[in-house]
Specification:
Largest sheet: 6 strands, antiparallel
Structural class: alpha+beta
Low-confidence stretches: none
Shape: globular
Strand order of the largest sheet: 3-8-4-5-6-7
Number of strands: 8
Helix content: 25-40%
Radius of gyration: 14 Å
Order of helices and strands: HEEHHHEEEEEE
Strand content: 25-35%
Length: 156
């Protein structure tokens, strides 16, 4: 089955409009989603299941995850994920809406966002306040100061 990129973005925008809450390790919009389960949910809506090894890594994604390990898991699945080269920690010019962005938080590439628009640069992400620990799915312009560690295109 092939991922319908527009439907993927539309489904995620629907969740943003619903105000789906952030929940660490959340896999269901009814109770909340986190940054790694948001794109997995969107893929499942089209009947696409991610590789079991990646699903296991997502289930053990801790509050302070090892983003480098997640990058390796994504890179180890070229059948499912094509890596788009990143230069200067910026979104690649050939990135497409629906591509996954692994973002640095300090020096750890532990946050995942979904590119929803290339012009202007917009992302859908499971956002959480560092102080109140509450959050929700949002679609926002990508702040130019945020650093991109990697960009992946789902090949499903």
């Amino acid at each position: 089955m092939t991922l319908d990129r527009q439907r993927f973005i539309d489904d995620l925008r629907g969740l943003v409009a619903q105000g789906v809450p952030f929940r660490h390790l959340g896999r269901d919009p009814a109770t909340g989603l986190d940054c790694v389960h948001t794109p997995a949910w969107g893929a499942r809506q089209q009947g696409i299941e991610l590789p079991e090894e990646l699903q296991r890594a997502m289930e053990s994604y801790s509050e302070q995850p090892d983003g480098w390990a997640m990058l390796e898991k994504l890179r180890a699945q070229p059948k499912y994920f094509q890596e788009i080269p990143v230069t200067d920690n910026k979104v690649p010019s050939d990135a497409l809406p629906g591509d996954l962005l692994q973002m640095f938080v300090y020096r750890n590439p532990k946050h995942m966002a979904i590119l929803s628009s290339q012009n202007p640069l917009m992302v859908i992400e499971a956002w959480r306040s560092a102080t109140t620990k509450t959050g929700k799915l949002i679609e926002v312009p990508l702040d130019f100061r945020r650093r991109v560690a990697a960009c992946f295109r789902m090949n499903a």
